[in-house]
Amino acid sequence: MFDPKTKKYPYPEDTGSHYLIVKKDDGTVFDESYPYVDTTRRMKVKQALLRVLLYGFVFPVMRVRLGLRIKGRENLKKHKAEIKGGVISCGNHVHMWDYIAVMRGAVPYRTNILAWDKNVRGENGKLIRLVGGIPVPVNDLHATSAMTKAASELVSGGGWLHIYSEGSMWEYYRPIRPFKPGASYFSCKTGKPVLPLAFSYRKPGFIREKIFHQIALFDLNIGEPLYPDESLPRAARERDLTVRCHEAVCRLAGIDPAENPYPPVYEDSKRVDYY
């Protein structure tokens, strides 16, 4: 598998930290009364109009821009009943547009995503909400409880919730960073499966590389659902599922889990300069 090994981006020391600078803050307060999953008629109409734009323009442009190939869509058909019953997906976060690729790969299902609170307050906040963004509140236990309840009800009701288990975006980074337990938490809470997804890279051709300065082309690889081991106590069950999800994402990205430079579970993990 191709490894871009770019030094263009300032990857932080902590593997779960952000380097993206969000310039705007609209002041939205994510408290216990915030509508984390907005089911109003007004929102549904806006989302329907956005889907027209996605199918007619955004998806085709994104496919050309990223050189996107989607692999493993047969797994969506194979596990149709399970996915229609509600699913949590997890994977690596390696490009500003990669959630658009997840949305395209999930068609005909509609996805929602746990989103960084600063992004939802920022310049792209309204768009993030329209594509199913659910902000993750910080430093407020009541707000966190409200968000968790809303997201759990979404999944239990047959929805699709995507979680970037690495915790932040590191563009064009090949190793799979340690996973935070969000996906396994919601899976154990709702009894719904986790669907591993992984982005891997292809080397761009001469024109893309030399003229358009494209670092890599993208493949989205879709795996098969994973379930919690009900024979384990709750804490061990979550950790076991987190480990298995991390291993599955590694394999989908073309990486032997034993050779990936990071452990599967995030524990204040630090960046490995593997170049």
Structure description:
The protein has 275 residues and is of the alpha/beta class. It has one domain: Glycerol-3-phosphate (1)-acyltransferase (3-Layer(aba) Sandwich), CATH 3.40.1130.10. Helices cover 39% and strands 14% of the residues. The chain has 10 helices and 7 strands. It has helices at residues 41-66, 74-78, 80-84, 98-106, 117-121, 125-130, 141-156, 182-190, 206-211, 234-252; strands spanning 69-71, 87-91, 111-116, 133-136, 160-164, 194-202, 217-222. A 7-stranded mixed beta sheet has the order 1-7-6-2-5-3-4, sandwiched between helices. The longest helix is centred in the N-terminal third of the chain and has 26 residues, at 41-66. It is globular, with a radius of gyration of 18 Å. The relative contact order is 0.20.
Mean pLDDT: 97
Strand content: 5-15%
CATH H-level superfamily: Glycerol-3-phosphate (1)-acyltransferase
Largest beta sheet: strand ordering: 1-7-6-2-5-3-4
Rough shape? globular
The chain-level structural class is: alpha/beta
Spatial extent as radius of gyration: 18 Å
For the largest beta-sheet, the strand count, sense and barrel status come to:
7 strands, mixed
Labels describing this entry:
275 residues, Glycerol-3-phosphate (1)-acyltransferase, globular, alpha/beta
Q: What is the topology?
A:
Blueprint: H1 41-66, E1 69-71, H2 74-78, H3 80-84, E2 87-91, H4 98-106, E3 111-116, H5 117-121, H6 125-130, E4 133-136, H7 141-156, E5 160-164, H8 182-190, E6 194-202, H9 206-211, E7 217-222, H10 234-252
Parallel strand pairs: 1-7, 2-5, 2-6, 3-4, 3-5
Antiparallel strand pairs: 6-7
Helix pairs in contact: 8-10
